[in-house]
Design a protein that fits this description.
Elements: E1 2-4, H1 9-24, E2 30-32, E3 35-38, E4 41-44, E5 47-48, H2 54-71, E6 79-80, E7 95-96
């Protein structure tokens, strides 16, 4: 997921990145959730074990992302998933709506 809003890195981490990361904890076959929080940008990658069906993984992430949206201040916006990427891609999956 990628979210853009004019906040500093500390605020992006507190209000956007952390809630998304926390909501992804405990997903089955989750490998890692690396993220970055910079001025005006939060990007969280959700990586699953090899062999996890992409549509199943996206459904799981979508459900958890809905939970994260409930705690992210509405004025910041609503993070959404973007196109599927692979280990060869940039790893960012999402865009701001």
């Amino acid at each position: 997921m990628k979210t853009s809003w004019p906040l500093g890195p500390v605020e992006m981490e507190q209000f956007v990145t952390y809630p998304i990361e926390a909501s992804m904890n405990g997903l089955p076959r989750l490998v890692e959730t690396p993220s970055i929080s910079r001025y005006g940008l939060s990007a969280v990658t959700v990586a699953f074990e090899d062999g996890v069906h992409v549509h199943f993984a996206r459904e799981l992430v979508s459900e958890r992302l809905a939970q994260a949206r409930e705690v992210i201040p509405p004025e910041i916006g609503s993070p959404v998933m973007g196109p599927v990427t692979t280990g060869l891609g940039d790893g960012l999956v999402g865009a701001m709506s």
